[in-house]
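All the exercises in this workshop are built on plain-text protein records. The record below serves as our worked example for the rest of this section.
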Amino acid sequence: MERTKIVVTGGAGYIGSHAVVELFEAGYQPIIIDNFSNSRESVLDGIKDILGVAVPCYNIDCGDEAALRGVFDQEADIRGVIHFAAYKAVGESVQQPLKYYQNNVGSLITLLKVMPDYGVSNVVFSSSCTVYGIPDQLPVTEQTPTKPATSPYGNTKKICEDILNDVASVSEGAIRTILLRYFNPIGAHASARIGELPLGVPNNLVPFITQTAAGIREKLTIYGDTYDTPDGTNIRDYVHVVDLAKAHVVAVQRLLEAKGEAVETFNVGTGRGNSVLEVVHAFERATGQKLNYVIGPPRVGDVPAIYADVTKATQELGFKTTTTLDEALASSWKWQQTL
């Protein structure tokens, strides 16, 4: 039986690579598009080791319309797209806003120009809880008002959501979208063949923890311990990357079955918040590694606390996370040890 083709832009990235594996294992044929500006080609070997087959990959920039059309020309009968491809470092986006607007917003516009010409109407968009800004109430639901972004990166996600809503409203079914607002992805595939692979100094907490435990970093700096939270450190909703990847498969299925509205939004998280210190202690508990950490000053733009209400995803997508924080951190450590 022929597999349904789904393009995965940024498919060699951290979340993208796990989504590729879950798509294939669910019976789909993922087609990777990635220019490796923020990922490594070795990830393709990891995917092949897990699946036993190579997944087609096109080394192009999603903002290059001619190259993108070339992929759609070559791969007949594409049925949907999962759009991950984007720059994602908050700090860098503050320093280089134009780089972020051109890449993150520009690549989506190019994709939306190309899709209808090939009869491709379904897109799952990789959005972020950053669109909620500093929320007035916790947990945040999909109805929580979005706020002015605290960084150009966050603003690109908000703008892309607006673009997808505007396009859906005039396309009369030609473009149907599910916006997945992720919280904080952590962990690695159980095989330890793919995982988070930051280039340079990590921007995220867990790779910093694992690199510190491995002796690559001298110490972990926790940014601030005077927030209005139980232990003074930031609270986030940490979701295992494999759970997150499975949410994309469910979203693709929903779009292909033409269920729901032209644009739907779902939070993807665990529905629980954990503080930075709780994550540190959970890592020590799960791995038996002691961490060298210090408290530093708070970072500009950091939200004190945010975590998801996941009722809508549970009820309408039938999606629930299944992995504990300790299990996710143990998988991150197993992955770090293979690097």
Remarks:
- The mean pLDDT is 95.
- Residues 212 and 218 are 6 Å apart (CA to CA).
